[in-house]
Amino acid sequence: MRSEPFDAIVVGGGLVGAAIAWGLQRQGLATVLLDEGDTAFRASRGNFGLVWVQSKGLGAPWYQRWTRASAAEWPALAAELGARTGEDLGLRQPGGVHLCLSDREMADREARMARMRQEAGNQPYEYRMIAAPELRQMLPGLGPEVVGASWTPYDGHANPLRLLHALHTAFAGAGGTYVPEARVGEGQAAPRDFAVTAGGRRFAAPRIVLAAGLGNADLAPRFGLSAPVRPQRGQVLVTERAAEVLPMPTTTIRQTQEGSLMLGDSMEEVGFDIRQTPDVMRQIAGRAVRCFPWIGRLAIVRAWSALRVMAPDGLPVYDESARFPGAFTANCHSGVTLAGAHARLLAPMIAAGRLDPMLDRFTAGRFDVRAAS
Ligand SMILES: Cc1cc2nc3c(=O)[nH]c(=O)nc-3n(C[C@H](O)[C@H](O)[C@H](O)COP(=O)(O)OP(=O)(O)OC[C@H]3O[C@@H](n4cnc5c(N)ncnc54)[C@H](O)[C@@H]3O)c2cc1C
């Protein structure tokens, strides 16, 4: 079979792969984006839509810096994708709160935020612990059980499906080649010389990026890489549209552009099981109603579960293969938040052929796993 030549192959058309593929194409690299399709697990179609900073990277300030950098890139990403596709990504970054329902929760949160600031070192880390009376002014309709919250100005949210659609549309509009129903199994790897067969076609390029979400665990070793990611289930509920207005997102409750409330999202270690369970749905709804009693009057109109792409320590994994330079992998459980960084910071590094030292701490080598030879 004749190979179709490209400058870069990206495997996986979810938020991570699409952001990188768009970023590469934007850099002028002829890029092909291969996606398995609906038979795969796809976190990008089932997430909560937060562009969230405040709790990311406790004990790992390099992750906090990367997350902050991404949140800072988001307005430019949204503006550029909006201009190219006409898509309103619904980005709002008004700051966000983590609500606490007991004094104990509030004390734990305060300790956590103080540590975040300390670990931020020279970079300012602005936050406040806000007690209930002031919080009630900020968030009308707050329940009597809420004792306070942590607040940072860095948090926000967006419409994740529009983001995914806009990334694909901008990629294709800039001349990128998207191939759906194209599962990559085997591939041929040599330094800066890769070939894969997918969807009955063969593609060759000097660079390959493995961004196949949970599929990366199997795929990475074939390219001298390691991606020890596991599934972690999250369940989400959506209410009918509300007359009330929630002015900023919380860690587990956000109001969409259209007015619905999204209530989330559990963290369950149940393997590749995407069933929904009444007990977890009840817990999610129960906590939301304790935070904002008026939510109890709204009907739940949709609910789903999806699987996060989780590394053993919960941090992203970015790597370039030592054995096959030109092969990269990208894995994370915050693909909405990190879309700004993936499209506008990581893709230029991959285009230049080298990851920046700021990403050194994200190597899979930190798990003491040996990349397959
Ligand atoms: C319940 C829940 C809530 C979340 N909330 C947030 C949030 O609020 N904010 C946030 O930032 N993040 C959130 N996330 C995480 C976010 O959704 C993920 O980080 C992101 O979607 C991961 O994108 P991905 O492209 O790596 O993976 P996926 O979306 O899983 O995409 C992987 C793609 O690779 C393809 N694929 C797999 N194997 C192959 C193969 N062999 N060949 C070709 N293609 C292949 C699949 O078809 C799939 O389309 C949440 C996730 C969940 C589950």
Automatic annotation (TrEMBL):
Keywords: Oxidoreductase. Gene3D superfamilies: D-Amino Acid Oxidase, subunit A, domain 2 (3.30.9.10), FAD/NAD(P)-binding domain (3.50.50.60). Residues 7-347 form the FAD dependent oxidoreductase domain. Pfam families: DAO (PF01266). This is FAD-dependent oxidoreductase. It comes from Paracraurococcus ruber.
